[in-house]
Backbone:
């Protein structure tokens, strides 16, 4: 974020500290370290030597708490992160589960998993092609918004999902479901917002601009029908049965 923009050492230190703390919540926080290292090492406006030094500093600080925790685990149990049996799923199955979980953020779960994946995938590819067209047009570069955030967001999404897919295969962890895929939801939404903000630049001088903008707004409104419906059902269920856990109506009714 700020460090990549300003190159200030104070910003680098803060980014390293907060990344290190994020890793203590769950092991998948390791993907934030990998994302940061990729962004630092591929930063174009610095020499290779400077990038390697910055990467070493960032990596050294961020892995310290996680390394200390793993040493503690090894002392207590003889393993770095607990006993793991052989994996019960293949790589293809893990990828399929992950894509199905992500697609369920945008389309109803009633649809077959691969149908959701196909529809969401086609939409993302289409939006991606339009966004690339915008980013490659010299005449609209001054009007493009949010371009600098695309790379960090996309790198994190790819790194996180890739890590979770492989982790499920090699360590017999749970396949990626919506709970495990939830960290990529906000980054994906932000990428979609950036795309939607910039795609209208394609037809900004076209006489069909009002029609194209109206069509884009209509598609967005149509897409919002599903999440609004889901939220409405969740609210009705919570009002009727309670919000979950000890707040459900079942816990308030005596069993005798």
Residues:
């Amino acid at each position: 974020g700020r460090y990549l923009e300003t190159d200030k050492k104070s910003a680098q230190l803060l980014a390293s500290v907060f990344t290190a703390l994020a890793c203590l919540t769950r092991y998948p926080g390791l993907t934030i370290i990998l994302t940061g290292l990729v962004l630092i090492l591929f930063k174009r406006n610095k020499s290779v030597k400077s990038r390697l030094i910055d990467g070493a500093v960032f990596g050294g600080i961020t892995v310290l708490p996680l390394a200390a925790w793993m040493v503690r685990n090894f002392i207590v149990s003889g393993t770095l992160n607990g006993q793991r049996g052989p994996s019960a799923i293949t790589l293809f199955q893990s990828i399929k589960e992950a894509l199905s979980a992500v697609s369920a953020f945008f389309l109803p779960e009633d649809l077959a998993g691969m149908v959701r994946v196909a529809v969401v995938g086609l939409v993302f590819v289409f939006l991606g092609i339009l966004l690339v067209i915008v980013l490659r047009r010299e005449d609209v570069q001054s009007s493009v918004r949010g371009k600098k955030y695309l790379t960090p967001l996309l790198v994190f999404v790819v790194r996180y999902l890739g890590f979770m897919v492989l982790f499920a295969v090699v360590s017999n962890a749970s396949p990626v479901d919506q709970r495990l895929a939830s960290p990529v939801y906000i980054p994906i939404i932000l990428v979609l917002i950036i795309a939607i903000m910039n795609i209208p630049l394609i037809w900004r001088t076209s006489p069909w601009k009002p029609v194209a903008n109206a069509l884009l707004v209509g598609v967005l409104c149509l897409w919002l029908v599903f999440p609004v419906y889901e939220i409405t059902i969740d609210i009705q269920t919570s009002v009727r049965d309670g919000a979950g856990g000890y707040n459900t109506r079942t816990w308030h009714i005596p069993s005798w």
